[in-house]
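Example 4.3 (complexes with small molecules)
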Amino acid sequence: MIYTGRIIVGVNIPDDFKKGTVMKTIIGQLSDIVSKGFADAGYDSSYGKVGFSNRPDLCEFQCNGAMALAKEYHKAPIAIAQEVCDKLSDDPAFSEISAVNPGFLNIKVSDDFLARYLNEMEQSDKYGLECTAPRKIIVDYGGPNVAKPLHVGHLRAAIIGESVKRICRYFGNEVIGDVHLGDWGLQMGLIITELRYRKPYLEYFNDEYTGSYSAQPPFTLSELEEIYPCASAKSKEDEAYKEEALEATRQLQEGKRGYRALWRHIMEVSVPDLKRNYRDLNVDFDWWKGESSVDDLIGDMVDDMKDGGYAYESEGALVVDVAKETDTKEIPPCMILKSDGAALYTTTDLATLLDRKRTFDPDQVIYVVDKRQEMHFIQVFRCAKKCGIVNSDTQLDFLGFGTMNGKDGKPFKTREGGVMRLETLIADIRETMLHKIMENHETDEEEARKTAEVVALAAIKYGDLSNQATKDYVFDTDKFTSFEGNTGPYILYTIVRIKSILNKYNEAAGGKTSDDEGLPRALRSPSNEYEKALMLDLAKFSQVLHSAYEEIAPHRICAYIYEICNDFNRFYHETRILAEEDEDRKNGWIALLLLTRKILEICIDLLGFTAPEKM
Ligand code: ARG
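Answer. The structure with arginine bound is encoded below.
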């Protein structure tokens, strides 16, 4: 089902993508033509599906239908392919079509077809993206634990989740990004316990106290950031201390006044800092809910699970069986309550799904979380389905990401071997980019700093996103910040180059700079192989976005724009664009540049970064 003219919720895709017409993808259009060839040759037209070529050295597109048909017709596949080829050889869409052994149809499209296709794309809604019926999607990403500064371990969830959210939105879905704070677990009890040791006189610890509590938190952000690791270290060495922290957690969850007040202070101090950090990453959540938000749903939810006969007691704890006969590895029962009655990580995740169903009723929930949590999510998903906490057709997806390692192949650390704060990492990369930019050309430091911020973000995000999410990767500062190779700065450099040519053209034509108004839009047939290669890749836009969306795979977009940038730079080095005397030809190139820039800008926006004006 194809949708047109939809209003997109809160998406900041650059300008005019809503132009009204809907088109078929290049694969769809070529398949229609080849299908007709099959029919004309007396065969079932459904075999005429065309795909991108596996052998770009031989052809641009291919159809393998004759191979599949051969059995049915007891004929050699090459004979069928030849018959179809004969029917199609005069079609103006092709510059070359041939039947090759053992039975492929190899296709090259004609220059006119390609130019016409791109012009149609330029005029279409979202550059020819075919959208499916809109759905409601929640992307659960971020997942920081409050009271701890964001560190590099949080980087991947933020970067990948943000991109996944944007991709889902671009397809016209209604999408909510939820940060799902870790704000209800043991870390809260640890902080409360440590604070009680340090400041036992505070009214929060006085059970007799019935007055109101101070509006001022009894700690600063930096104190809080020091208290948590200290408490955490103590609890690992000292059993009694850990027991106290567990007890404090339980009392907090049960509603003890003083602890609830402290909890609010922790949130007040910590959440604005988290927001600031995410803003620096150009990551933005619609919901700032957390584990605590669903505390009051847990009681009834657990009762329902018992009443429904799903949850039962086992060694004092409450569990739900989630194993299936077809399992190849053991899936232990999902624990709902511990023997002391305390809720667990699974419990809050289940209650969160219940809350989401009641408030938003999503068709799909995508979790972007460290892949080491896979078992947790298998259990939560199965339990939620079994107990009817989500609808039977709600799609639950876990995108588990790998670890970000240092050059030594071990999880990324500071030089001293400590956990690196996200702020520090961002500051380091900004500094590196600043040096490179100042080295490249003399420019005002203030301006260079602004540019460096934009480019640094691209370096970090592209470095991460260009790897398949599930794989571990090495965070290599030298590589990620390079202007050459498969990097964020290279992509931005290419966009800036295009912008600069367009500005020069605009100036020469007496127009305003950085304003596309009045620029030529009609592309012409390619004049050389480099131009054709660029045009062919631009034509793949819709397919690439589909694979990124369906596979939840932003790295597909990275691979795509890297190709486009390579194509563009090859074309640029072969072509004297602005010096061209044939005005028609020059205008066609300007239109091509405009389209290339737009496609690149849409793609980087989907990855969650932007391009500067100059660099
Ligand atoms: N706070 C969790 C952690 O630090 C991650 C939360 C992920 N999301 C979720 N719905 N469980 O491990």
